[in-house]
User: Which sequence fits this backbone?
């Protein structure tokens, strides 16, 4: 049953037992600031968390206290028990959260249960998003933070899993599925699979990849056998271990078979080479004559294995981006940065006092930065915090993003790439375009203008200009011009896609050749320090949780804690500066008094 926190102060608060000097130090520190500023915000947003509890039963532990403990825990990057120890025995934590020493009795089970309710009842993290936004709004108003200019970056976030290869992943997936069956249903499994599982369970730990050794082809065969065996069992087929077994077959089964074929081919070539070397030698041969011949054969075999491996890679099916790589965290995926998730952090820039985070987002590592930018802009615009300039790295740059941001009044300041185009290559920005009046850089007019599907902006029609082949083939700018040659025999005209988004992208490409662009773009580098702060000071590099919902929960607490830390430091620094200024003015009063009296 939901019950709001009591606002009545305890008679046994830490501050009541301190001397006036120590009490003043407590009020001037972070604990006093947190109690005066952050705690009222948590109390105001507490009723929103009533959806986590039923209308009957035992009253809940104070949501304000649990939120405060979680924020301070992530602010200091502490594990659960260490944070609860600070809550129970540290007077600063008790004063910050407004409790007495007799009330600070939260257990680890209480804290874990609160997070479990958040994940189960609010998997998208909307409740913590409201708390984050409320703290940002209050901090931006107090510090007069401008959101006109913001910067954005992403970083790889690793959950509490270990990276393994396909074969180890398949073994672990099979082991978890067999364990989930239970003893009764496990008896229906074939004897070979059951013997392997019993051998696995007798070992200690899962660190040894050689235990329960099984070939890739045999593993794929077992997985397929179990899939058909339990497909008609509604209890088993609807379970998560069974779904992971299906994902293993669908996403990694073909690759396992191909890799084993390449491995067996390599092994056979090594065996054949060793046998040939043994047959060609005799007891009468001098020992010194064999090493050069063996070395040559070894190099030759290495080249053969390399060619077979490359041939095997070409024959493998095209891999989808969102394959799972951990049976303990199916949401984690691979990207060029590694295994895990991508956390996107947006913050203000060019403010004198401090910078605050305006937005955070968590996606799988397989999702690229370009697709996330739209969600970031929509959220900022929906809250009225849309920037005039948004600085981001080249991973967010695309013709569509530049166009969409411009349509919403946002100047996306990000460098664009044109692949292998030379630095002196021409672009669409060099074309003179005024409605239907188009001229190429050489001054030639198109023979016609038509509309066709754009090759760069998916599912959108785009105007195309078609130029005479005789003019383009003999043009001195042909190698530098973006006009494309005809792709089929039915057309003889050169053409170029003149989609407005592509024109805007090429104009940006031309602008970034100027030093002024890069001088203005230097401000984006500051977000790298924010990412480093989140990873090094708040433990974002290696989380203690698994699964998208839990990872999102952890990032929400850490982003909110970072804003509280920055806001608190700036507020205390402003207060110290004001006190120093008043003290300096008081020192000048005695000197100015005689002059005023005269």
Assistant:
């Amino acid at each position: 049953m939901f019950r709001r926190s009591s606002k009545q102060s305890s008679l046994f608060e830490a501050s009541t037992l301190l001397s006036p000097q120590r009490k003043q130090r407590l009020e001037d520190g972070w604990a006093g600031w947190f109690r005066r500023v952050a705690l009222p915000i948590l109390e105001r947003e507490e009723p929103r968390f009533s959806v986590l509890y039923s209308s009957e039963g035992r009253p809940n532990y104070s949501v304000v206290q649990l939120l405060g403990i979680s924020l301070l825990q992530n602010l200091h990057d502490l594990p659960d028990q260490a944070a609860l120890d600070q809550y129970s025995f540290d007077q600063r934590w008790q004063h910050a959260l407004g409790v007495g020493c007799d009330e600070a009795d939260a257990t680890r089970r209480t804290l874990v249960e609160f997070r479990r309710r958040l994940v189960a009842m609010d998997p998208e993290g909307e409740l913590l998003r409201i708390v984050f936004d409320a703290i940002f709004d209050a901090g931006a108003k107090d510090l007069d933070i401008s959101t006109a200019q913001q910067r954005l970056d992403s970083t790889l976030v690793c959950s509490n899993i270990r990276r393994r290869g396909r074969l180890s992943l398949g073994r672990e997936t099979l082991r978890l599925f067999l364990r989930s069956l239970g003893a009764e249903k496990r008896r229906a499994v074939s004897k070979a699979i059951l013997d392997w599982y019993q051998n696995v369970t007798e070992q200690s730990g899962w660190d040894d990849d050689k235990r329960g050794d099984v070939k890739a082809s045999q593993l794929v065969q077992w997985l397929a056998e179990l899939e058909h065996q339990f497909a008609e069992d509604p209890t088993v087929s609807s379970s998560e271990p069974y779904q992971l077994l299906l994902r293993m077959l669908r996403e990694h089964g073909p690759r396992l078979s191909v890799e084993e074929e390449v491995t067996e081919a390599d092994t056979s070539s090594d065996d054949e080479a060793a046998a040939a070397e043994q047959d060609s030698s005799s007891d009468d041969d001098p020992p010194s004559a064999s090493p050069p011949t063996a070395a040559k054969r070894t190099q030759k075999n290495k080249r053969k294995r390399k060619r077979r491996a490359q041939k095997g890679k070409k024959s493998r099916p095209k891999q989808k981006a969102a394959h799972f790589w951990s049976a303990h965290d199916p949401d984690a995926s691979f990207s060029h940065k590694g295994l895990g998730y991508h956390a996107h952090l947006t913050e203000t820039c060019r403010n004198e006092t401090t910078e605050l985070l305006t937005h955070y987002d968590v996606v799988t590592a397989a999702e690229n930065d370009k697709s996330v930018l739209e969600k970031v802009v929509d959220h900022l615009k929906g809250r009225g915090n849309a920037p005039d300039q948004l600085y981001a790295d080249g991973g967010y740059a695309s013709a569509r993003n530049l166009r969409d941001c411009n349509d919403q009044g946002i100047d996306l300041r990000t460098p664009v790439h044109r692949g292998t185009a030379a630095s002196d290559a021409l672009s669409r920005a060099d074309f003179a375009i005024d409605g239907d009046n188009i001229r190429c850089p050489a001054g030639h007019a198109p023979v016609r203008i038509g509309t066709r599907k754009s090759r760069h902006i998916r599912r959108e029609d785009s105007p195309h200009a078609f130029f005479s082949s005789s003019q383009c083939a003999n043009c001195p700018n042909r190698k530098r011009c973006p006009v494309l040659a005809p792709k089929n025999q039915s057309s003889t005209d050169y053409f170029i896609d003149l989609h407005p988004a592509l024109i805007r992208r090429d104009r940006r490409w031309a602008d970034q050749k100027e030093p002024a662009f890069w001088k203005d773009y230097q401000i984006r580098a500051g977000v790298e320090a924010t990412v480093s702060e989140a990873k090094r000071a708040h433990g974002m590099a290696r989380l203690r949780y698994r699964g998208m919902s839990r990872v999102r929960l952890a990032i929400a607490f850490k982003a909110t804690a970072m804003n509280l830390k920055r806001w608190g430091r700036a507020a205390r620094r402003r207060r110290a500066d004001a006190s120093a200024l008043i003290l300096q003015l008081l020192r000048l009063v005695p000197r100015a008094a005689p002059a005023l009296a005269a």
